[in-house]
Amino acid sequence: MAMFEGKRILVTGGTGSLGKTLVRRILSGNSGKPEKVTVFSRDEAKQHYMRLDFMHRKHATDEVIYENAADVLTFRIGDVRDPDAVRRAVDGMDIVFNAAALKQVPSCEYFPFEAVQTNINGAHNLVNAVAHKGSSVKRLVGISTDKACKPINVMGMTKAIQERIFIEANRDVENTAFNCVRYGNVIASRGSIIPLFLEQIEKGVPVTVTMPEMTRFLLSLERAVDTVFEAVSSDGRGETFVPKVASAKITDVAAVLLNGKDLPIHFTGIRPGEKIHEIMVSEEECFRTVSRGDYYVIQSVLPELRRIAGATPALEAEYSSRDNNLDQDALRELLSASTSEIGQFLNRA
Hints:
CATH class: Alpha Beta
Number of domains: 1
Order of helices and strands: EHEHHHEHEHHEHEEHEEHEEHEEHEEEHH
CATH architecture: 3-Layer(aba) Sandwich
Structural class: alpha/beta
């Protein structure tokens, strides 16, 4: 049976870039038709526009994706910081995806306790709700970030603790599998660098890059959702899934998008909490990381949760965006295929 067939699914933070793509893919029916998909978030305006978006699209796939969406797709106002709201939202669910987060690095630096309340306390509230007697939740996937690996900023620190909260929950909640995903910069997601570059180029103003040395992992929203689906379909517990994806220099990203336009690149200096290179698997994690198709899978830091004892490690050194950067031709191909907006932008440039 397909993994979502007849399931009741909760997506916290479901109005974000990843959340909306995740919901669309679940509703497509390609992995089974769910009984119900509930978007749980605190922003009623985003929920309103998401509801309109999902009910009134004019694409050819409407009849497949959105047929009966009024019944299947539901929205619930609430905050992962509120344990009572979380408990009510989780009640009766089979699968939970936690995409709720404070994820802007500078914002978390200026308001660290706000990040703690959402990214850490929110995860704790979800675990408590799932652990409640009679809970029907069988799988929970926590959406993490490469910044959780060797974290130097508040966002990464809170996400690192979130990972540990979910992974450790496997010891106490026997009937639920808690796994995580960890990935890098999602191309064109809200708050990412590429939409800023596109806006600057359209306006004919200098393109701003923090440092010449800056590199990032790059993946599309669809690839990010693929990773989430890989984690929820796994029969393992306490695993963290990392996609094998490309990395690039940010100056090369800017150059590809400029596409020969005579606009300068201005270096603005590193932002509060920002890394020069991102790491998705640390040296310390290498010995418990295995390769599984298009993914690296980090086994739990807790030995009793590891299911692959003595497996040959997939990595000998950390998995860093510093290494194996795409050249500009390959980068152009990746960006063109990532979203229709970027593809159209490059084709008309």
